[in-house]
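REQUEST FORM: STRUCTURE PREDICTION
Request ID: SP-0412
Submitted by: Lab K.M.
Chain count: 1
Length (residues): 154
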Amino acid sequence: MRILVDTNVLIRLFQSSNPSSPIAASAVHELKKHNVEVVMVPQNLYELWVVATRPVTLNGFGMSVSDASLLQEKCIHQFRLLRDEQGIFDHWTQIVSSTPVIGKSAHDARLVAAMIKHSTLNILTFNIQDFKRYTQIRAFDPAEILAGQLPPRT
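STATUS: Completed
RESULT:
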């Protein structure tokens, strides 16, 4: 069984100054301890790159390109990277046309489309509300994982 890690969790894993960093790390550790495969998709890395290279004054990490590359390599080493595939666009198109998706929510819809394509129906996120509209998947907050609410075995 596996769970997709949302970019907001990835960011906190590598931003030790963030108060949610220990919660994110503990939740990932707990999942792995229970043999849940924690995965990501390329979109997670695109979004992480944006935050990593954005100036600190604009709520980013202010990293250089070389440091952001190293951060991406750490992620790739720590989590299995599921590849983008042609069918993701078809799933995304169906999702955004059948569910009221506007603006930035289209990014979350793309994560959901990738999840469906890869038969990964759980996501670890600090933004549970962003995923409530998608009945095909289940969102878990890291605090839920730490409270013993693991994704069901399928």
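NOTES: The helical segments are 7-13, 21-33, 42-53, 65-78, 87-98, 105-117, 142-146.
Reviewed by: T.R.
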